[in-house]
Structure formats: structure tokens, C-alpha cells
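Form 7-S
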Amino acid sequence: MLTSTTSNFVQAAESYFPVVYKTELLKNIFETASIIWGIITALAILTLFFLYTLSKHKLQDVCHLEGEVWISEKVSTPAVYGIIKPKIIMPDWILPEERPIILAHERIHIRRRDNLWRIVALITACVHWFNPLSWLFLQWFFTDMELACDAKVLKTLGDRSAQDYAATLLSCASGQRYFTSPFGGVKTRIRIESVLSYKRLTLLSTVAFGALIVAICFVLITNAVGG
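Output:
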């Protein structure tokens, strides 16, 4: 077995041929493009690291509220900061009655380790910086991440609480955060519409699924009778 494996490796090495360009011009183009890609990728990742370091400054001068929850006047919207020991930092203007909804949302981000996946997604986009679709998918990824957390919270809320949730989203709406999981910063209009139509969409999905099951059963029974 070992001899056979070694022989396969030797044959693979002997049959290997390096990439050969048909012309010197084509070789120079690919080599130059590779250098440009490497430089821009490195600069993009360094920029991410710099921005991440700046975002960590918001962890300073915060007041502890409870558990992993902190209050700061330097943040404009509630968000989860950090990856290993994440903290929920809320602005000092958040009303006490808004806190339970916000904390429920942010704690789902922590359980899902969304900040870690944000970093992975950002680095992936930096590596594929030349592809505009990668940046489009990045925006979709961030939006879907927030919608998924909204849906988790809405499962535990009633109609009235869903309206309060949408109102809290609107009050917390602000700019995009790339390294944190903000409560109200991603596609707020889309999220509010999703929140307000959550139960209607759930009912529609249930009806559609039921109709599909009935159709499948009808086809199976018809085939069985025909056979």
C-alpha cells in the first residue's frame, strides 16, 4: 500500500509541467496583474485592521449596566463589539422600555457568532476585490444576517410587540457598521417591512406548503390507482 502511494506521488511529480505562457507579453501581463492584486488585497486587509482598531476605541469610557451590557455616549446605535468576549454597547439615550427588545436581538448575534462571520466575509471580499459581485453579496450577507436575527426575536413576540420592535428599529437607524452587529443600521426600511409583514408571510408560506403537500399526494394517489 505504501509503495503504491509513493509510486503515485512520483508519477504525479514527473508528469507535472509548470504553466507556460505562449508569449512573453502574456506572461508579463499575468505577472503584473498578480502583483497588483496582491498589493491591493494587502492594502484592503490592512485598512480593515485599521478600521477595526478604531472601532475598539469605542470600548473605552463605557459604563457597565449588567452582564455583557454596557452604556456609552460614543456610540450612535446599539451593537455587539468584539469576538472572543463580545459586549453589547448601547447609546445612553436608549429608553428603558426599548432595552429588552434590543438586548434580545443583540444576544442572538452573540449566540450566532455573527461578528466572526462578518470578519470572514470582509476578508473574503478583500481577496476578491476585483469582482463587483463580491461586494454586492457582502451587502446581501449583512442584510440577511440582520433579518435572520429579527425573525428569531419575532418568534417570541406578539402583534403589538412586533410594532414596538419596528418602532425601535426606526429610532435606532443609523449608518452601516462593518465590524459590529448593529441593531438599526442595515437596510432599516427593508427590515421594518419584514417585521410588520412577518406573520402574514408566515401564514402565506404555511398555505403554500400545505397546497404543495396536497398536490404531491394527489399525484401519488393518481399514479397508484393508474398503475
